[in-house]
Design goal:
Helices cover 72% and strands 0% of the residues. With 226 residues, it is mainly α.
């Protein structure tokens, strides 16, 4: 049992490190030679990269941030497949119950890693893209439904932060409607709340009517990060 717990713990740590990989920071540093935390919103996410470097780099960072979430969950599935083939899982462990909880822990670790990267002094983005990757790996229907909410809101409002917040709120509802396991539903609640809290400053600007839309130039440290 000790070996199994150690393997599970290692997976959660690696998930955090995957989330911590500073994609946006590295992209802007390499392409423009500046610290993205010192421009725009100060966030390392794809939206700030978009405003700093343009659509291409922004889309690239968005894709990689999403991939970090996918890999974090894929790592859990790999562990169970490998451990099963090598008979490393204790007989007292119920895989059907254990796996969803470990997936949830790995997902939370990856989200925290993206927003509190150990490589950037525990700074980072707002975990929206990484959360989407996690949801797609957990259940692709949940991921696509959540992205659909984001896409519809952004098409109507042209405000990324509002779209991210609405997507974060929708996650829990979609999880329940699609009858996902309890750990996934709890992840939807906790992860969604965390993403909303990461957008506190955006919410203040939304209420004040000063939150910029896509294509608008930033005049202060505004806008959000995916």
């Amino acid at each position: 049992m000790g070996l199994w717990l150690s393997l599970c713990g290692a997976v959660v740590v690696v998930a955090y490190l995957l989330g911590s990989f500073p994609t946006g920071y590295i992209a802007v540093k390499q392409l423009k030679g500046i610290d993205i935390r010192e421009v725009g919103s100060g966030s390392t996410g794809a939206t700030n990269v978009l405003r700093t470097l343009g659509k291409g780099p922004g889309a690239f960072v968005l894709g990689l941030d999403c991939l970090k979430g996918v890999l974090a969950i894929a790592l859990v599935y790999y562990l169970f497949n490998f451990a099963t083939s090598q008979s490393l899982i204790p007989t007292t462990v119920n895989i059907q119950l254990w796996q969803p909880w470990l997936v949830t822990l790995a997902g939370i670790a990856a989200i925290l890693g993206h927003s509190k990267s150990i490589f950037l002094g525990f700074t980072g983005g707002k975990s929206v893209a990484t959360s989407l990757g996690i949801l797609l790996a957990m259940n692709w229907q949940v991921g696509l439904a959540t992205f659909g909410v984001f896409a519809v809101v952004v098409a109507i409002s042209r405000i990324v932060s509002l779209s991210s917040i609405m997507g974060a709120i929708a996650v829990s509802i979609v999880m329940v409607v699609l009858q996902q396991p309890l750990p996934y539903i709890l992840f939807g609640i906790a992860g969604g709340l965390y993403v909303v809290l990461r957008h506190r400053s955006n919410i203040e600007r939304l209420l004040a009517g000063t939150e910029p839309k896509i294509g608008q130039k930033l005049t202060t440290e505004t806008e959000q990060s995916v």
